[in-house]
Amino acid sequence: MKFRTVGMLLVLIVLAVFLIINWGALSQVTTVNLVYTEIQAPLGILVVGGFGIVVLLLAVYTVWQQASMMMELRAAYKEARAARQVAEDADKSRVAEIRTEFAARLDKLETLLTDRTDELLQMTRDRNAAFEKRLDALAEAQERRQTEAQTKLSDTLGELEKRVLAALPAPRAEVVEEAKKKEIFEDLF
């Protein structure tokens, strides 16, 4: 309990004890002046009754004040709950908006990455085709050079053979056989 409530209870208890102890004096009949008339009544009971009415009015006022405060608190609670709901909805919409924007950016990035990858693949294919053409040209040139070198070598060997044959006396049968070998060698190449 609050200190104020305890204090009020103590005052009421002391007042009740005082009334009980002095009940005899309070209940004696006296002439009471009410400004416009005079009456015969116990003054103590009139004072206690007036005090009781004031206490009752104060109690009613306190209850009314507490009830209005509770109503205000309830209204404030409802407003706070509504504001929290609005804030949560706003957060949800912001999260949804951010998620949508993120998905859009991710799609854009994926599209860009796919385009770049396609460009790189096309560039790689073009370079590969160019390298293959160049390699084919180099292979043809190498084959041509090899053929030319074989032809030169055959010509040089033929000239050397003629010189050797011309320089050496050879039997006739061997020369015929060598000529046949030469013809076979030339047929092979």
From TrEMBL:
It comes from the Bacteria. The chain crosses the membrane at residues 43-64. Keywords: Membrane, Transmembrane, Transmembrane helix. This is Lipopolysaccharide assembly protein A domain-containing protein. The lineage of its organism: Bacteria, Pseudomonadati, Pseudomonadota, Betaproteobacteria, Burkholderiales.
